[in-house]
């Protein structure tokens, strides 16, 4: 990564960068560590990869540890994740045992003598049980908590209550039944990362050619981890109806995350459905991990879909909007913070296939509307969801616990 915080001045203005430096100055001698369960795949890793680097670059001593776990452990924690997003789960003693033992084992060789600890998501949540707590601990939950399974929430809540602070992605995810201070920090994208930076048309063409995506037909795409919450099968259904009426193509681009063992199974289901489709020649299913390719597909698409059933935030939505591409998405989780219905895209109930089809057709047929939505989408993301704002939010919270200690 060869970016420097001062490079962001041209995107957000020098006042914002100066503000980051002056807030960072106050906590410069402090040592912070964050713990998450993967450095690759998914939105959390995406953000930490930019933010941690930039914090270190401006003099904050900020470490990042990755929890070590077996496939069994990650199968269980994915079930926790699914249950927090509303699924049923049999919370057996065996599952709890593996969950706790893995965290305990990790604590034995992960020495924490920092001034502040930030733990991301349920996988490393119980770590707090295994340390003599000498500093503030913050729990940052990225999951869609709009309707969690009560048993699983109650079990995990017991750990969260040991923390000093609880951070969620949107107002509706705050909890009344939690006796811990809470705040909202919206996730954000890095405008200068390979995934989001400007690209010349020659590069876009080269990448699309390499992956056999033609420029002769409009592109509709969805880019996400292969996960059941992302609604890929519904995306194919929407595409089939749209394709009956307009000549176009669908690009489904995805990856697996190291901490999500369900990816392979979901990928196979999508592959089968695409293979059976009458329009299979117009469906491109790509399992490729490449940030520039994500950037190219988001830029080249006429419409980006995000048909999630639940969504903590949905960085892919911000990524597409920032590139001036309109988004048709489910109005769930963090998506309505980003897609403003009929302004920079359209929102639908995830089950409303007809609604999705109508919105996609409307955008495919109207270039002027796409441009107008694109401009507004870019502005909205630029004003609200860039990592410079995320850094400011985190610096405020760090100051509160490191300087004011409350
Ligand atoms: N992503 C990627 N390649 C892919 C699919 C997804 O790099 O093929 C990235 C995507 O660009 C985004 C992140 O993975 O930055 C997904 O974050 P999001 O918040 O949308 O969803 P999550 O995976 O965290 O549920």
Order of helices and strands: HHEHEHHEEHEEHEHEHEHEHEHEHHH
CATH topology of the largest domain: Rossmann fold
Mean pLDDT comes to 97
Shape: globular
Rg from alpha-carbon coordinates: 21 Å
Biggest sheet: strand arrangement: 2-1-3-4-5-6
Number of helices: 15
Number of domains: 2
List low-pLDDT spans. Answer: none
CATH architecture of the largest domain: 3-Layer(aba) Sandwich
What's the number of extended β-strand segments?
Answer: 12
Question: Could you say which structural class the secondary elements and strand pairing correspond to?
Answer: alpha/beta
Tell me the span between the first and last alpha carbons: 35 Å
CATH classification class of the largest domain:
Alpha Beta
Description:
The chain is α/β, with parallel strands linked by helices and 406 residues long. The chain folds into two domains: 5-188 and 386-402, Rossmann fold, CATH 3.40.50; 201-384, 3-Layer(aba) Sandwich (Rossmann fold), CATH 3.40.50.2000. It has 15 helices and twelve strands. It has helices spanning 9-12, 14-26, 43-57, 71-84, 93-109, 150-160, 201-210, 232-245, 263-276, 291-300, 315-322, 335-338, 353-365, 367-384, 387-404, and strands at residues 31-36, 61-66, 116-120, 137-140, 165-168, 182-184, 219-225, 249-255, 283-287, 303-306, 327-330, 345-348. Helix 8 (232-245) links the parallel strand 7 (219-225) and strand 8 (249-255). The mean pLDDT is 97. Bound molecules: uridine-5'-diphosphate. Uridine-5'-diphosphate binds at residues 42-43, 46, 195, 223-225, 253-255, 291, 294, 313-316, 319.
């Amino acid at each position: 990564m060869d970016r420097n915080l001062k490079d962001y001045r041209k995107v957000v203005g020098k006042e914002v960068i100066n503000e980051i430096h002056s807030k960072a100055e106050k906590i410069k001698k402090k040592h912070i560590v964050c713990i998450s369960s993967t450095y690759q795949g998914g939105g959390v890793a995406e953000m930490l990869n930019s933010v941690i680097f930039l914090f270190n670059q401006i003099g904050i001593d900020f470490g990042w540890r990755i929890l070590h776990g077996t496939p069994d452990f990650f199968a269980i924690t994915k079930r926790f994740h699914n249950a927090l997003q509303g699924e049923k789960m049999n919370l057996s003693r065996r599952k709890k045992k593996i969950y706790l033992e893995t965290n305990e084992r990790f604590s034995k060789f992960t020495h924490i003598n920092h001034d502040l600890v930030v733990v991301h998501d349920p996988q490393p949540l119980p770590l707090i049980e295994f340390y003599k707590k000498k500093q503030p601990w913050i729990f940052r939950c990225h999951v869609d908590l709009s309707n969690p399974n009560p048993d699983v929430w109650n079990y995990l809540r017991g750990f969260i209550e040991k923390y000093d602070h609880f951070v969620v992605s949107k107002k509706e995810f705050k909890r009344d039944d939690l006796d811990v201070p809470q705040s909202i920090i919206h996730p954000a994208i890095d405008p200068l990362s390979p995934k989001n930076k400007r690209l010349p048309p020659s590069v876009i063409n080269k990448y699309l050619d390499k992956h056999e995506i033609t420029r002769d037909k409009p592109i509709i795409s969805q880019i996400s981890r292969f996960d059941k919450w992302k609604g890929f099968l519904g995306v194919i259904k929407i595409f089939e109806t749209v394709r009956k009426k307009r000549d176009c193509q669908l690009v489904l681009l995805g990856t697996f995350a190291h901490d999500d063992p369900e990816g392979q199974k979901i990928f196979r289901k999508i592959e089968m459905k695409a293979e059976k489709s009458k329009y299979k020649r117009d469906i491109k299913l790509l399992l490729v991990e490449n940030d520039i390719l994500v950037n190219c597909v988001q830029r080249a698409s006429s419409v980006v879909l995000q048909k999630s059933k639940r969504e903590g935030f949905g960085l892919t939505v911000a990524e597409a909007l920032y590139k001036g591409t309109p988004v048709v998405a489910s109005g769930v989780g963090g998506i309505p913070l980003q897609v403003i219905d009929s302004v920079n895209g359209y929102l639908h109930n995830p089950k409303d296939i007809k609604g999705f089809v109508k919105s996609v057709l409307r955008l495919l047929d109207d270039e002027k509307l796409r441009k107008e939505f694109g401009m507004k989408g870019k502005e909205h993301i630029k004003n609200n969801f860039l990592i410079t704002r995320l850094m400011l939010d985190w610096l405020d919270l760090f100051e509160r616990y490191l300087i004011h200690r409350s």
